[in-house]
Amino acid sequence: MTSAETTPSPTSPTSSTPSPTSSTPSPTGSTPRPTATTATEPAPGDRRRWFALAIVMTAAFMDLVDVTIVNIAIPSIQRDAGATFSQIQWITAGYALAFAAGLITGGRLGDIHGRKRLFLIGIGGFTVASALCGFAANPEMLVASRILQGAMAALMVPQVLSIVHATFPAHERGKVFGLFGAVVGLGAVTGPLLGALLTEWNLFGLEWRPIFLINLPVGIAGLILGSRYITESKAPRALKLDLVGVALVTLGLLMLLYPLTRGRELGWPLWGYGSMAGALIVLGALVAYEKRKAARDGSPLIELPLFRVKSFAAGIAVQTVFGVALGIFFLVWTLYMQFGLGWGPLKAGLTGIPFSIAVSTAAGLSVQKLVPRFGRGVLQAGALVMAAGVLIYLWEAGRYGLAIAPWQMALPLVVMGVGMGLIVAPLTDAILSEVPREHAGSASGLINTVQQMGNALGLGLVSVVFFGSIADHLRPEQVGPAFVDAFQNALGWVVAVMCAIFLLMFALPGRPAQHIEGAADDPRPTPEKQPELVA
User: Fold this and answer.
1) Which domain CATH number covers 172?
2) pLDDT tens digits for 442-462?
3) pTM confidence score
């Protein structure tokens, strides 16, 4: 499960009353991007807006479930489709990479060409990609279809909060954003369980395929109803697209991730090291290009001056590294339970329930009670608590070996869940607290993007930290112990990452009250007053 992947900040802009033409939500974050919009304040009595809300919420739920549903079915995919372990990594990492690379572009396309239009294109493409995944004839087709699915999600998801903002009057948005948070939590819990049930039931002898095919009726209904009930809105003064920036980001990540994922399988060829070194050159070229583009037309993909804000730069590092930790853990956890311990998908899915409950509970407490009182210390405590939970899990995996039971995993999973909940809920607001408010939307979109990129990098690193400690040829009786040992090795890496996150958090503001505690005034500037960061 990757519940933090698209989790909006619980302190979304609900305490203020924005002007209907002052801002639009960022691609996936809860903080709006300061752009004008053509939509007028909707009439309170218009019931169509609630149909529109149900449609976009269902689409968001479908995306969240699809992210978390796949992990639990991976062993079944590997056995039925004959996928290699590197292909399994790309089934998850390919989606995350395409999603991350397209988030900001998807949001800007909606601003320029209309959010309803882009939402319908996204949900239609997502449905087609889901069908291609479900009917994939081989692992290569499944990987390609998952990449397409991630790209279509990048068109669909950024429009959700933008449509909500354009459809609902300001005084109703607090209730609506609260509903969105509930949908996020429900999707995070439902995905693994639904994936486990669909895989276990083996409907019509289709094995794992129903986890993708279930999207078809939902997507078709969303496409038909969305075209009727969603009101079109756009931002006529939106920024231009930065396709070169998107291409450089994607190329750099591919040059880094591909050799990491395939390197062990291919014997770590020299070209792999060359590719990873070349990735640094490409990313350096990205920085140089973004500087020039900012000076030329003011519409870069990445606003580099934001990194001069100490807390933002450190927060981006925290978000990226945290994504790496989550990418590593959730994939190796599934492989450990189903390949190493030989558990079925339903047993593995049910084992994760204590974790999900702990994350949700701690997230609510951290924002409402703890962070306003203790500030940054809550996030740092979360990193240490999560590391402690991983250490307990590591000890139990070694102590009980193949005989470990789900109830014995409950303690480390609850501890880890509490730690994660203390981090994921307030982290976005802590990162944004010292960013000029007029740039909070761009910063928020970048936060979501780098977290997805970190997740993709973590999935790629599984080849090193997990499969790197497993021999190439194992007898059947050696598989279980080898996977248990590899799981322990991967957990050691996760502990190290969480300690690094703890240290990086010292650069966050001690008490980020600006966003976490909220403000009575509208934090989003009107179009008449939008100062710029100086490059």
Assistant:
1) 1.20.1250.20
2) 676 788 788 888 888 898 899
3) 0.78
